[in-house]
Amino acid sequence: MSARSTKVTLQNKTSCTLALMDSGLDHGVWSDGLNPPAAVAAGATAVWQSESGGDIPIIGNVGTGTEGHVKFSIVPSAWQPWFQIHPETVFDHAAQTVTAVARTPDHMDLFVIGFDNAIWSTWWDAQGGWNPGGWYQIHPETVFDHAAQTVTAVARTPDHMDLFVIGFDNAIWSTWWDAQGGWNPGGWYQIHPETVFDHAAQTVTAVARTPDHMDLFVIGFDNAIWSTWWDAQGGWNPGGWYQIHPETVFDHAAQTVTAVARTPDHMDLFVIGFDNAIWSTWWGVQDLYIYWDNPFVGLNRYHQSVAPGFGISFSGGKGNNTEATYTLQLDAPVFASDFRPSRNGFPFSNAWPSETTTYIKLPPFTWWGNGIAVGDASKGLCGGMVFAVRDYFDARKKPPQDRPSGPGDPVFDYIVRRLFDSFNSPFLGSCDPNPCGGYNMLANVVDFQSQMDPIYPDSDNYLTDGVIGDGRAWIMAHEAWPSIQESIDAGNPCPLGLVMVKSLLPTDLGGNHQVLVYGYQLIQQRLTLYIYDPNSPRVDHVTASLDLSDTGEPISVQHNVNAAGPIYSFFPLRYERMQSVGGSPL
To answer: 457-480 pLDDT, tens per residue?
Structure first.
């Protein structure tokens, strides 16, 4: 083994083939037999490794490092699989039609005539994914017929959209949105009322990716999506019409496909499915870039990028002879089974009367009487509620719907027991029994205490922070996130500790928060976590989002968690399922 090496593992969790476009080393050599592969098949894993190769007199090659890059073209072997958008909101696939428009390469808007016959909309943005607030109404004072009419949208500039509908009088009606003033305050208006159409008619969907290219889409008689295209150089496709994903079918008599092109190299299709949720697929020309640097100073640096439509992240990556594991995936939302806070969370909020529930003895405060009271119920039982909700979900049981009255109530006592476990501390006072039969010596409360330390670095910038790969940014991006993803991908919601206080005082532990992550979406390197927040019962749109691309700077976490203060860091809580014990509501 050479003095320094970097081994890269790439997991291709897409249905695309990765074709090698370029690779090179600025320092070092490729390890024997571990050059970057010419191609990485869909669902396959590739491994390559570089190592330091230069010698320095007397001390050999210990003073050199390795630095290199790899670039792949992401070649869709077919259209990407269909996935759901906002599955909590449904429509009627036999009567309604969704339409889409892209104002910029990084923004799309969807429109549907809702069950109340008003126009509803939602949007997607490259920075944050699908609108966490879900669907919303536009001009609710004007209604149409969702069973017969279809709204059409077009963007003439990035700052202007126009909507069109064939009205009840069969004339064309329109309204518009402008970046300066929002939706037209005058509402809908007629265009050429002397010319009328048939508001119940269906049409083919068309999209122009460039001025010289058009694509057409129709749901065929076999109920599969069919397409053809026209190009200024060659005219209409000589191959005629062809199928897209023939394994997925719709109802040509009731459903309509909508298409939008955000860039000349990317198209998205949308259909209201048989389950009445919106389904989508896409086509695109994309690439993936990975860079690593393992220099003699001992500072590991990485840079990676991927085109829209995909997400990229990695774990590991520290040390002289290091391994970094990259994961490439689609940017579609991923959820832990069918978990939703409105269905699987407690319907009551995390608000309780004052009641001391536990004490913790933390070094160097083990001499402090019974310890530090961090379990005052009036400060919240978020950890207990999170663990209990996960217990009920694992048991496939609905949580209790009535708020427990307090100590002595089996549900309250159960939540308090799970609060002890969420601390997972070997320093708990002896007066507090452990219902799970033993604590993991790697304690959640110790993780809180260490990351609360004001001198703990936010970033991994060696020049400013004096640390290498240990800052809060590194922990969130390359340690916490891979563990969260593994849990969600396995169908398990992940309890998460949110560090929201910087303090050396153990009494400030209560200023942190605990939540349950039940889904995620990785758009390029922008991660959004979908959260059950005990402070926001029945709310399905609590999220936290952050950019994973650069841990050399502090990472800002944008969130709507119902807790005061910023999120400085987060980490998965060590969780074990509650066993059936006396008094347990399970």
So the answer is: 898 865 555 555 578 999 999 999
Mean pLDDT within 115-125: 90
Cβ count within 10 A of residue 472: 24
Q: Is 272 exposed, middle or buried (0-12, 13-18, 19+ CB in 10 A)?
A: buried
Alpha-carbon Rg for the chain in angstroms:
27
Angle at the Cα of 79 from the Cα atoms of 74 and 84, rounded to 5 degrees: 110
Tokens 């993936």, residue located: 288
**DSSP string over 303-330:** EEEE-TTEEEEEEE--SSEEEEEEEEEE
Domains of the chain: 5-78+286-332 (2.60.270.50), 83-280 (no CATH), 335-572 (no CATH)
pLDDT in tens, 443-459: 567 778 788 889 888 98
pTM: 0.70
Lookup: tokens for 501 = 């206080």
- The model's confidence at residue 328, banded by pLDDT at 50, 70 and 90, is very high
Q: Reduced to 3 DSSP states, what percent helix, strand and coil does the chain have, rounded to the nearest 5?
A: 10, 40, 50
- 349 is written with which tokens? 């909020």
Q: For residue 53, give both structure tokens.
A: 């190769």
Residues in the chain: 586
Rounded CA separation 64/66 (Å): 7
Residues 6+ apart with CB under 8 A from 105: 126, 262, 263, 266, 308
CA distance 217 to 207: 9
